[in-house]
Amino acid sequence: MSSKFSYLLLILCAFGISPILSSAQSPSSAVVAAPRASAADLRVTSASFDASAGAALQSMKARAEELKIGGAAVVAYFDGDKIESWSSKMLVVGRMKDEPTATDKGSNLLAIVYAKAAEMADTLKDSGSKVRPPMTGEFGWEGGVIVRVKTGYIIAAFSGGKSEDDVAVSRVGAAKIVGDLRGAR
Question: Which residues constitute the signal peptide according to the record (predicted)?
């Protein structure tokens, strides 16, 4: 196991994120589980989120590259239980869209990642949770995670890979923000 990956595992465990690895898995095929410990006691402000957002996107980029996928990543934070505004940051990882072909109309990955984020902002559940049918403008696709904090919600979403890979990338972003903000206390 590389020292960089070992360090990531140590950080994840320190902040209550349980990495699940079988002995046969390499670091690039690791599955990172959702946060075990609650982040509900974590106070977040737009300024503290903004300070961590870039690093979270770089963590998401690194995970996407390990999985050999490209696409669009977004992280966001909003105050309270009902969204009125949010602070967000986005990063393109290799490609923003899949070009149309003779047999496929193509995909705007940036539009899809924001649709995932918008669904989570409304449902307060991970994207694709199926707590209700998708509304116009939503797809109901998995790939985004939302974390409740004391002051609001943190969202991380990715689009460009298979659903399970998008979720894995998003979990790394959310874990990075939570870890950074816990460390800043």
Answer: 1-24
